[in-house]
Amino acid sequence: MVKNEQAYLDLCQTILDQGQVKSDRTGTGTHSIFGAQMRFNLADGFPLLTTKRVNFRLIASELIWFIRGETNIQFLLKHNNNIWNEWAFKRWVESTDYQGPDMTDFGNRSLVDSSFREQYQQEMASFKERVLTDDGFAQQYGELGPVYGKQWRAWQTSQGETIDQLKDVIDSLKHNPDSRRHIISAWNPEDVPSNMALPPCHALFQFYVADGKLSCQLYQRSADVFLGVPFNIASYALLTHLVAHEVGLAVGEFIHTLGDAHIYQNHTEQITTQLSRTPFAQPQLQISGGAKSIFELEVSDLEIVNYQSHAAIKAPIAV
């Protein structure tokens, strides 16, 4: 069914038609609305967009990275996942240890200056190689600070204690499914101002059990609708499947609630192209880990089948 995807396409059109033009932290500029919601019935299929190709392996490896409590891009690079590179690279090139060419505003400059783009690509390739091969360098410059995995699995209290939010919620779902406290927060006000490479965009989520089905609602404070949101939809749909599998429930809905939902001004052409396409049927998720715990799953245990899509659409990332 294409109903799931239509919710996303309708949101894109609404932002284009009604969005306010706003400045933003990155200096790129956006079309933005405040407050939106999409609902995805996971029984209708896995909500991986079909109007542009979305790489499920990147989504799966990032989610497993979160679930394991990882915060260093070395794990991601070992799985050929580059989606967090720019934030770690920014920390490296702004450090006093970096002695290479000026990389100020590398994201935007690489789009308009071909000679700089080649220089940037060389520096990024060198950075990635060092993170993969030099554990000391990776520990210092591959580290993103207390981002999602840290908050999910090892939230630090003011008393110096550690809370494993994900484990606690899974235990609660098993023993008290009707609780209204199945909540995990990535937004830690103490860590946001200085320690995180990027403050959490998907800030809080809650599970809900009814009729033997597990549903999940995410509150996302800031939503890059073209590049980020397709990943967020698939990631939290996957998380809902994995937690449901862990606690012995069927899947219900994924409900995606957005605060600042925006399309960057340099993404409008890409969004328009995507909106001109007709969606295909939703694919299906297969979990082959058997009796494995959610905390033991590998990327190879997760597979999307019957995925038909239009071609990928590239766009610059705002850092």
From TrEMBL:
Binding site for (6R)-5,10-methylene-5,6,7,8-tetrahydrofolate: 55, 224, 318
UniProt key word Acetylation: no
Biological process according to GO: dTMP biosynthetic process; dTTP biosynthetic process; methylation
Domain of life where this protein originates: Bacteria
Cellular component GO terms, alphabetical: cytosol
Assembly description: Homodimer.
Protein name: Thymidylate synthase
Annotated family: Belongs to the thymidylate synthase family. Bacterial-type ThyA subfamily.
Pathway(s) served: Pyrimidine metabolism; dTTP biosynthesis
Enzyme class, broadest EC rank: transferase
Domain annotation Thymidylate synthase/dCMP hydroxymethylase: ranges: 6-319
Organism: Amphibacillus marinus
Compartments, record wording: Cytoplasm
Job of this protein: Catalyzes the reductive methylation of 2'-deoxyuridine-5'-monophosphate (dUMP) to 2'-deoxythymidine-5'-monophosphate (dTMP) while utilizing 5,10-methylenetetrahydrofolate (mTHF) as the methyl donor and reductant in the reaction, yielding dihydrofolate (DHF) as a by-product. This enzymatic reaction provides an intracellular de novo source of dTMP, an essential precursor for DNA biosynthesis.
Keyword vocabulary terms for this entry: Cytoplasm, Methyltransferase, Nucleotide biosynthesis, Transferase
MF terms (GO), sorted A to Z: thymidylate synthase activity
Reaction catalysis annotation: dUMP + (6R)-5,10-methylene-5,6,7,8-tetrahydrofolate = 7,8-dihydrofolate + dTMP
Principal place of residence: cytoplasm
Binding site for dUMP: 25, 180-181, 221-224, 232, 262-264
Active site: 201 (nucleophile), 201
Enzyme Commission no: 2.1.1.45
